[in-house]
Design brief:
heterodimer, A: alpha/beta, four-stranded antiparallel beta sheet, 14 strands, B: alpha/beta, 8 helices, 27% helix, 24% strand
């Protein structure tokens, strides 16, 4: 069913106070300049179509004000529909009915100025861009696509990564990604460094070690003090064991042993020899008594002495009587002495005097006993006596030796114990002296060795002996432990320095990354890094979203363009377009788009659209408008509003176009032509005469 | 034995934030009813500068709450808290690392209060004698292993504990405070705050219960006076944008997992972004769907980011692009934009061209 405008009522549209019209097949609206012709066209557009700034038709209309209604017939539902400036538009009705109407249908149905001759603006003739502009959203889609940078268009997006030219947004994406990775790594490293570089633990450890080393150092000094004390004691002890004394002692002990042994030998020898002395003396006695006879009484001298004693005694008695007691006493003493001498002499004479037979018998018996041989006589006795006499000289020598050795031994026995005691040893029995002497020598050597040993230890402590403490710190010095502690402390300090260096490095790195200062505390730098991490992540997400969105939008617009291209191609090949082409041109019946160029065909052959005459191209363009418009209505004709569309055509083409318009009206199309051109007005009047009452004329300014 | 764990209560003066006291009270009551006798508070029991502990003490004395042994670990907000501050026999403040064996349990808990050092420094000094994989670490700080979660109020790194630390010291489980959003990552569990502090801490709140015998952990809900929710809708213009938006809003509310009884507690922030054919219509839909809820402020539905769209050609391109986005392969993960961000970028690309 044809879609037609059945009534137009408008008030106060631009300069038009009131306009009323019941349109017919051909409707000519004439008006001179400033009479409201343009305002009326815009009123019709605004009432029937979406004409906002973002509307598909992209009309740039003025605010014309006013009120009015336009009634349209032939719409879905079959009833008349009235449109106003505020109500629904044709676009909405077709959209609600499901009609696949081009969004910019208004551009097909309303032709302003010289648009039929659009091809003139395109050197080389009409091509796809003309059709697209006229028949599709090509311009919108192209604008959208052109707004998307090529680096996004060329970007490859996969589930793993986005790649593409290192330009614009893609470069920004890569840079931001790299930056974020760097920040993340720095953050991880910073956290790890801080977490693993527990400097406080190390500091505590170093402090504990230092304290322990301090205690051990005190112990070292005290140990040195004790060593020095021990050395002093040893020196004193060594001094108490003088080497020369010990050596002399040794020599004395040796000499003593030697002398004592010699004494023993001499004594033994003397003893042996001394046994002959008794025999010698006995022989001497035997010799003395062997020649006399003691039975003859006392010897003469004994008898003289005995007589003197008697005389002296008698004189003494006399003196006593005489009262000369002192002299008497003297005489008594002499008398007693003489008696004693007499007795002695008598006894002596009894011993040495000539033997008796009995004595000689006993002598022989004794001789046999002593010498184990019989006494053969005086010569044998004398011989024996002489033999023994020779040995008596040896006895004296031995006695002298024994006496001398005894004296020497006595001297040593006296000195050695004294020396031993002075050296701190117990003297004891002399057989222990050598042992003591050796012990003392050994002891001295041991003491010296010990002193050297301690001296070495002391020297190894390397201390200032003026500062040695005398107080025990309560810790036992252990050189190995001290060395181990120092090594451990050194290692801990090295680790601490390394960690502090690492921490300083990471702080510097964060400061460089964030623009902060390495002098800030860790927390402050961490916060800055975290903020930068968050901001960079936000940037990356926005950039990524922009690339994904751009790519999706570009591809979506491209797909829509391809769909529209396909729709255009289908439209060009459709029957309504072919019918319109045939109806308008009278000869061509097929149009196609090949490589963005229009080709038109007819019984006489195929032609490039650009090779056609201007008039033919205008006819073709008008046919395309009509064909595409009627196609959406299943081939039914519609209304066509031509706003002085032929005014720039020459006279001949004007006639042709007007004739074409009348011809279209005959085929069911409703034509509105608005003009200020008297020639065109007259042409329409003349040509439309064939339509009888199908021609409606209104002249603006007269109503 | 079951041990409850919570954190980040951020108690202030009760008059300023009674809901925080009420949430903690409700948690304690839940423990008394469940027969759970130990509660670990993993830091930030008190908000910064809160020095008056009497209202907390009063709270703990109420009803049978005194039967619960409360082990308070210092956090970065209450780092000055010391063991002598709380005058209650059942509340113990761990102001230095210590090993806690609740009722002689075979599972020791190493409580590590917050300090400006790496957590490993404190763990290493106390881990001797703790059998690997048999002890529990409870502290207050950032776990920097796995997916990193950041306290939106505090963007630094607080007493960090690394994955490598856990490998080194081998705790069985780790219970941490500091991140207010409940989160579980392998052996590391953030208890989350028992009461959302503001509109940024959304959703129903919970606390953890750890069974030392079974080695299992469960989360139990906390009754709170306030439930925060924040929803942002990216509107894509279409003839049925209002209907789509309505469906989306109803779906979002459904995900809150709340019942009619929760409605008075709910404070919601609703934002609309993107482009709409009918901004007024969008507003009407959102105001209608959320009409039974209180908004977190007087702004109501925030339409500041919602643009008007009246070009059906652009709309068609936008819709087609969004369909493509939903079918596209592109990098996904923590560092990638969410779908809403890409949709917004699509709309900005189309409508900004």
């Amino acid at each position: 069913m044809p879609v037609r405008i059945s009534r137009i009522n408008a008030k106060n549209i631009g300069p038009i106070r009131e306009f009323t019209m019941r349109p017919g097949p051909i409707n000519l609206i004439y008006g001179e300049n400033e009479q409201g012709k343009t305002a009326l066209v815009e009123f019709i557009l605004k009432c029937l179509f979406k004409t906002g700034a973002r509307s598909p038709g992209k009309w740039d209309l003025r605010d014309i004000g006013g009120t009015g209604k336009i009634t349209v017939t032939g719409l879905p539902g079959g009833k008349e529909t009235t449109f106003s400036l505020t109500k629904k538009k044709l676009d909405d009705i077709w959209s609600e009915s499901g009609a696949q109407m081009p969004e910019n249908i208004s551009r097909l149905l309303v032709v302003r100025g010289a648009e039929p001759a659009l091809a003139d603006n395109f050197p080389g003739g009409a091509d796809k861009s003309i059709l697209s502009k006229l028949l599709s959203n090509e311009d919108v889609l192209a604008t959208i696509q052109n707004s998307i940078p090529q680096n996004i268009v060329k970007a490859e997006i996969t589930s793993r990564e986005i790649t593409g030219p290192a330009q614009g947004r893609v470069k920004q994406y890569r840079d931001t990604q790299t930056e974020l990775e760097r920040i993340n790594n720095l953050f991880t490293e910073a956290v790890h460094t801080r977490a693993s570089h527990n400097t406080e633990e190390l500091r505590t450890g170093a402090r504990d070690l230092s304290e322990e080393i301090g205690r051990m150092e005190k112990a070292r000094l005290y140990h040195a003090f004790t060593l020095r004390t021990r050395m002093q004691k040893l020196e004193k002890e060594i001094g108490g064991l003088p080497e020369d004394e010990i050596d002399n002692l040794g020599r004395d002990v040796d000499r003593y042993a030697e002398k004592k042994a010699l004494l023993s030998r001499k004594t033994s020898e003397l003893k042996t020899v001394s046994r002959t002395r008794e025999n010698y003396e006995w022989l001497r006695h035997c010799r003395e008594i062997g020649d006399g006879d003691r039975d003859a009484g006392a010897p003469p001298e004994a008898r003289a002495i005995g007589l003197f004693s008697v005389v002296a005694f008698a004189a003494g008695v006399a003196l006593v009587i005489l009262g000369r007691s002192v002299a008497a006493l003297t005489l008594f003493v002499f008398s007693a002495a003489a008696v004693a001498l007499y007795i002695h002499s008598l006894r002596k004479s009894l011993k040495t005097g000539p033997a008796t037979r009995e004595e000689r018998s006993r002598m022989a018996s004794e001789y046999r006993r002593r010498f184990n041989e019989p006494l053969t006589g005086r010569p044998a006795l004398e011989q024996k006596f002489e033999a023994l006499g020779r040995e008596q000289g040896r006895i004296a020598e031995l006695e002298s030796d024994v006496r001398m050795l005894t004296e020497e031994c006595s001297a040593l026995e006296s000195r050695i114990p004294r020396v031993l005691e002075s050296l701190g040893a117990t003297s004891g029995a002399d057989e222990n002296w050598r042992c003591w002497a050796l012990k003392l020598k050994k002891r001295r050597a041991q003491l010296i060795a010990r002193k050297h040993e301690i001296q070495t230890s002391y020297a190894s402590l390397n201390v200032n002996e003026d500062t040695l403490p005398e107080t025990d710190p309560g810790v036992e010095f252990d050189a190995r432990k001290l060395e181990k502690l120092k090594n451990t402390l050194s290692a801990v300090e090295d680790r601490l320095k390394a960690r502090e260096r690492d921490l300083a490095d990471i702080k510097n790195a964060i400061a460089r990354e964030t623009g902060g200062s390495a002098g800030e505390d860790f927390e402050s730098l961490f916060r800055k890094l975290a903020e930068k991490q968050e901001n960079t992540l936000g940037d990356l997400q926005r950039t990524t979203a922009g690339i994904i969105a751009g790519k999706a939008v570009y591809e979506a617009a491209g797909a829509l363009r391809r769909e529209e291209d396909k729709a255009i191609a289908e439209g060009l090949a459709s029957k309504p377009v072919a019918d319109a082409l045939k109806a308008v041109t009278g000869s061509y019946n097929r149009i196609s788009l090949e490589q963005d160029k229009l080709h038109i065909s007819g019984p006489d052959g195929d032609y490039d659209f650009s090779s056609l005459s201007t008039g033919t191209r205008e006819q073709v363009m008008l046919a395309l408008r009509m064909g595409f418009a009627s196609r959406v209505l299943g081939g039914d004709p519609m209304f066509l509003i031509l706003d002085d569309a032929f005014q720039h055509s020459d006279w001949k083409r004007r006639e042709s176009l007007v004739s074409l318009s009348v011809s279209l009206a005959k085929n069911g199309w409703q034509i509105f032509y608005l003009t200020m051109d008297n020639h065109l007005r007259d042409l329409f009047r003349k040509t439309s005469a064939v339509l009888d009452d199908g021609f409606e004329y209104r002249e603006l300014g007269l109503q | 034995m079951k041990i409850a764990v919570t954190a980040d209560v951020h108690l202030t003066a009760r008059a300023d934030h009674p809901e925080r006291y009420n949430a903690l009270g409700a948690l304690l009551d839940e423990l008394t009813e469940s027969g759970i006798e130990h509660l670990i508070i993993a830091g930030d029991l008190f908000d910064r500068n809160q020095r008056d502990y009497s209202e907390f003490e009063e709270l703990c004395r109420e009803s049978r709450r005194g039967q619960i042994s409360i082990h308070v670990i210092r956090g970065n907000h209450d780092r000055s808290l010391s063991s002598g501050d709380i005058a209650l026999p059942n509340v113990h403040v761990a102001d230095a690392p210590e090993i806690m064996r609740p009722d002689g349990s075979n599972t020791p808990f190493l409580l590590v209060p917050y300090e400006d050092v790496a957590m490993a420094e404190r763990i290493s000094a106390h881990v001797d004698g703790l059998e690997p994989d048999r002890w529990i670490l409870a502290g207050h700080g950032d776990y920097t292993g796995g997916q990193r979660h950041v306290n939106p109020h505090e963007k630094g790194t607080y007493m960090p504990v690394e994955r490598a630390d856990l490998d080194r010291f081998k705790p069985r489980e780790v219970f941490l405070g500091h991140i207010h959003k409940p989160h579980d990552s392998e052996m590391v569990h953030y208890a989350g705050s028992p009461c959302g502090l503001d509109i940024n801490e959304t959703g129903k709140r919970s606390f953890m219960v750890y069974d030392t015998d079974a080695g299992t952990m469960e989360r139990r809900p906390v009754e709170t006076d306030v439930l925060w929710f924040s929803e942002t809708f990216t509107v894509v213009p279409s003839p049925d944008e209002a209907g789509r938006l309505r469906g989306s809003a109803i779906q979002r509310i459904g995900r809150w997992d709340t019942g009619p009884e929760d409605i008075p507690k709910i404070r919601v922030r609703v934002r609309a972004t993107g482009y709409a054919r009918d901004r007024k219509g969008v507003r009407s839909v959102l105001e209608e769907v959320f009409q039974k809820y209180r908004f977190h402020d007087e702004t109501g539905v925030d339409f500041g980011g919602l643009m008007s769209a009246d070009d059906e050609r652009l709309e068609a391109v936008a819709r087609a692009a969004i369909e493509r986005v939903d079918k596209m392969e592109f990098p996904k993960g923590d560092q990638q934009p969410r779908r809403e961000e890409i949709i917004t970028a699509v709309l900005n690309t189309v409508y900004g061209s």
